[in-house]
Amino acid sequence: xxxxxxxxxxxxxxxxxxxxxxxxxxxxxxxxxxxxxxxxxxxxxxxxxxxxxxxxxxxxxxxxxxxxxxxxxxxxxxxxxxxxxxxxxxxxxxxxxxxxxxxxxxxxxxxxxxxxxxxxxxxxxxxxxxxxxxxxxxxxxxxxxxxxxxxxxxxxxxxxxxxxxxxxxxxxxxxxxxxxxxxxxxxxxxxxxxxxxxxxxxxxxxxxxxxxxxxxxxxxxxxxxxxxxxxxxxxxxxxxxxxxxxxxxxxxxxxxxxxxxxxxxxxxxxxxxxxxxxxxxxxxxxxxxxxxxxxxxxxxxxxxxxxxxxxxxxxxxxxxxxxxxxxxxxxxxxxxxxxxxxxxxxxxxxxxxxxxxxxxxxxxxxxxxxxxx
Length: 373
Ligand SMILES: *Cc1c(COP(=O)(O)O)cnc(C)c1O
Fold this sequence. Notes:
The protein has 2 domains: about 10-250, Aspartate Aminotransferase, domain 2; about 250-370, Aspartate Aminotransferase, domain 1, CATH 3.90.1150. Helix content is about 40%, strand content about 15%. The chain has helices at about 10-30, 35-50, 60-70, 90-95, 115-120, 140-150, 205-215, 240-250, 250-270, 300-310, 340-345, 360-370; strands at about 55, 80, 100-105, 125-130, 155, 165, 175, 180-185, 200-205, 220-225, 225, 275, 290-295, 350. The strands form 4 sheets. Strands 1-9-8-5-4-2-3 form a 7-stranded mixed β-sheet, sandwiched between helices. Helix 1 (about 10-30) packs across helix 8 (about 240-250), helix 2 runs parallel beside helix 8 (about 240-250) and helix 9 packs parallel to helix 12 (about 360-370). The chain binds pyridoxal-5'-phosphate. Pyridoxal-5'-phosphate (PLP) binds near residues 85, 88, 157, 159 and 188.
């Protein structure tokens, strides 16, 4: 059985005619940068998300950087980030001369812990970057409240959760990434909405921020060769936009396929006390960018070796907490404030998760895991 962490080839073959046609249209038109395909994708995504402004850009890391650049922050301002996330979230903070303050996460849903945010706030705190990790939203209502009380910006890192619905206490639903001041996402090929190269986008309801960020992605240019801001060169190219338009139409069904696969995995591991399946929270749907188990009293290295021998791919997202990584270490971070992240880094295991998984494949994968336990 040939298994992959993500089966992009299988997914492509089902939409090949449409994708190839869309790409060929771009090539024939020669409108490679800022062409009509980029504008139409932008509008389609605005409509899908229910957001006023989408600003396409080069990748998800740039999206975070540009969001921070737009907020008039100054050196030494503190930005609260989860300790358990992909490095990009904190990397851009440091790159801009800001201070990344890491905060522990919730042991069950892996997103930034609300009580710990409160204790991390100081007079220098300016923003919180909740990361909707593995496909499920952070508790945004709690974060909105904290942000309001402390006058903080919220940038939602939605790279792993595009299409997830946040569910407010009153039942109202809103798409992940559209709740804070700014949302960011990545179209890296393996993300839930992936293109065939690098790509990303920024979302906001705020007209002034949108106008500023739209200039910033293109060197801060206002009129041709007249610059209003220091910007960057970070544009989504038309070939990627063409692919994304074809795939956005299918995002709901792609996410449903992931949810179905996750439910099937759950059943395979049902009743096993050494494995905790991903928790679903009541304030968000889960679009399973990753299907991540927590192992109890299991030697993960031994289990991984066994999976390797059987040709089963797996991932450890993430093996080291950010506060322990060389460029991010600081005296102020005390290990006792990161007990959950430290533990998760030792016990998590992500299984193959994509839109093309079959029940036979999941039976094979889960049996291989249960064999070892
Ligand atoms: C993938 C990812 C990013 C960065 O996206 P790129 O497009 O690869 O730059 C940022 N944050 C999180 C949580 C991610 O998973």
